[in-house]
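Incident log, support desk, overnight shift.

02:14 A customer reports that sequence design results differ from what the structure should imply. Their input is reproduced verbatim below. On-call engineer (initials T.W.) acknowledged and began investigating.
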């Protein structure tokens, strides 16, 4: 249930931009605080990191949606990578919900802890994504050489 090389490149690029912009925001937010006129202030580049992150998430949701009909359904039916694929889908859904909540529903009281939950899950999503992709890439040539069973 492999993806075409172009589809795979787009999906990996989207995931890397999404992860990179998220990690970039974390680094800017916690390690590069600037001195403002009234004390510590957010780094001005944080806003740009969030803009890139939001755009990358919209693109990644579209890209993830393109793998559902063939890749996810077909791999599920054939018994490939259930555990890691389920984790990728679950964490992606959780991140979409917490990202939505951060943008539209959070208050000053909830933004800090919800943000930490979101970025911790995002780092976990990066691990889950590569945990899913790497074994599948290694076993894809062997699977493609198998012949389907024929007969009763």
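02:41 Re-run completed on a clean worker. Output:
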């Amino acid at each position: 249930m492999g993806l075409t090389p172009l589809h795979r490149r787009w999906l990996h690029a989207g995931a890397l931009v999404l992860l990179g912009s998220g990690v970039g925001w974390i680094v800017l937010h916690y390690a590069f605080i600037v001195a403002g006129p009234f004390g510590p202030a957010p780094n001005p580049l944080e806003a740009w990191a969030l803009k890139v992150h939001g755009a990358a998430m919209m693109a990644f949701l579209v890209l993830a949606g393109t793998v559902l009909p063939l890749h996810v359904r077909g791999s599920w039916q054939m018994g490939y990578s259930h555990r890691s694929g389920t984790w990728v889908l679950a964490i992606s859904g959780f991140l979409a919900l917490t990202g939505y909540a951060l943008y539209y529903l959070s208050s000053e009281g909830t933004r800090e802890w919800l943000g930490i939950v979101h970025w911790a899950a995002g780092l976990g999503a990066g691990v889950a994504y590569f945990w899913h992709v790497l074994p599948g890439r290694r076993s894809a040539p062997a699977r493609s050489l198998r012949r389907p069973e024929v007969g009763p």
